[in-house]
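Subject: Sanity check before I submit

Could someone independently write out the structure tokens for this chain? I want to compare against mine line by line before I put it in a report. The sequence has 210 residues.
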Amino acid sequence: MKVNDIFEREFDGDVLRFQLTELNPHKVCIELMNDSIGIDKGICSHLAPPFPVFEFAFREKGDFVTTKEGNNEIEKLTVEIFERIKKWRSSLQWVRSNTSLKKDVAEDLVTKMYAALKPRFHDRYLPTVVRWTCYGEIDPDNETDIVRMGELISSFHDHLTIRNSETIAKVGYKVEFDDNGFKRLSVDGTEIQLEKMEETEKALRSWLNV
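---
Independent answer below. Compare away.
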């Protein structure tokens, strides 16, 4: 494939159209072209020297053309984009089923929180962040609230990097995340779902102060 080539992939019965927008030996970028999705659609992946064990593209008649590895990366990115769409749709469904917000207002809220998560945090957090917004803990138009949200998720990532069995035993629990949100797992096996933002902050505070 070359830059600006358009291709299609089918996911769960939906045919999605993509365009290869950027390509060089260590970078490939594709964009979702379906206008009906309603979300920020670009996604890219980088491999930076000095560690590339393969290249995404090579020159052929003056143009970069994808290698086998480049094509594999493109397939991976199409799946990542579809996962983003699923998170966006499930978040919108949750808002519309649990609030009285009109469709366009709900879509605007979800889109704003989606944008607030990028590019630093994975979209897997979107449903939880949307729930925090609907609980009144985040104002999507308030930069301070958006920063607070980002710092909380960053704290969770810090928690993942510093925890070990000795510290877990000392604190008595660890914090995990799945598609339903954050949860506190105690060493005795007790599991508590952390629905609110402030609950998650409190659970992580003890860890980060160890």
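---
OP: Matches mine. For the report I'm noting this point. The chain has six helices and nine strands.
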